[in-house]
Amino acid sequence: MSTKDFVEKDYYKVLGVPKDATEAEIKKAYRKLARENHPDANKGDAKAEERFKEISEANDVLGDAKRRKEYDEARALFGNGGFRPGPGGGGSFNFDLGDLFGGQAGGGGAGGFGGGLGDVFGGLFNRGGAAGTRTHPRRGQDVESEVTLSFTEAVDGATVPLRMSSQAACKACSGTGDKNGTPRVCPTCVGTGQVSRGAGGGFSLTDPCADCKGRGLIAQDPCDVCKGSGRATSARTMQVRIPAGVSDGQRIRLRGKGAPGERGGPAGDLYVVVHVDAHPVFGRKGDNLTVTVPVTFPEAALGGEVKVPTLGGPPVTLKLPAGTPNGRTMRARGKGAARKDGTRGDLLVTIEVVVPEDLSDQAREALESYREATAGADPRAELFQAAKGA
After folding, report:
1. Which of 32, 73, 194, 385 minimizes the number of CB atoms within 10 Å of its CB?
2. Does residue 203 come out as left (phi exceeding 0), alpha (psi in the -120 to 50 range) or beta?
3. Are strands 304-310 and 126-127 parallel, antiparallel or unpaired?
4. Is 98 helix (H, G, I), strand (E, B) or coil?
5. CA distance linking residue 194 with residue 211, whole number of Å
């Protein structure tokens, strides 16, 4: 990422969110835009592919709290006419804000700017003209994908194939950008990939070379696939292990499984957003599974034993106490979802007393007898008494 990009690009505008947007709002906006502009969903659409790159770049910055803080501070310092030296500051400083993401910032002080400023920019201020004369390795972009699991797969864990598209070295030209694999050194930057420009007040800024796009090389015969950039969209399928007990909407990070780095830099990370389909019988509350079990009125009133289904295992038998009310929740321990420590949650069983719609003559006669036997009891007496006293 160049100094010019970091200072001048409005990543909030790219994602369509305000500057005070929360992490959740940024994540939601990115997912929506990424789905709409993903190369797999827009075959052959160069504009959508370029838009997808911009969205991914914006998310790389705003989706990381530390990078977002550095971006906001850099924009505040340099986004409004440049940085002006204090009294007596006539020295020349060269710095490359792209190094904020390369992890290769040089050591040393901040060239007269101590403390917080040096910490913010990772030692990127260096006195004299030596800075920015070499091209650093660049970390690959983070990649985000989505996967949908069945309810049982989410509870037990699963290995699923995942197709991803990301920027990588062009296979047609082996990343050189040249058909014959023999690019020439850029005469403008003399192979460094960077040029300096005056920023006023004795300061100079280092930008990627416009002629070679920061590569330090220029293709003599540009590759037909990557148009001389040395980078192309690469699609690959990999097997991803989703851990047991994953929940709907959870975001899993796989280090080093994202886009390949440039110039020997490390690969980015892969973030997998998991969606879980609903189950017709079971629900979930954290590590516990839930199920509603219908029982008859005699079972609830007199008590008894009822069999309860479990997810992927044999049924369990619960002892129903006499006088069990409708809606009571009982617990079958160890029959829930898997936890990280290898144990399992519980199965929460909610009792639902079933009222029959059709009665036989014998059943109706029995209920009439029951009503006569309990005619003196009024289950609503306390309700009216409480309402009257309130």
Report:
1. 385
2. beta
3. unpaired
4. helix
5. 10
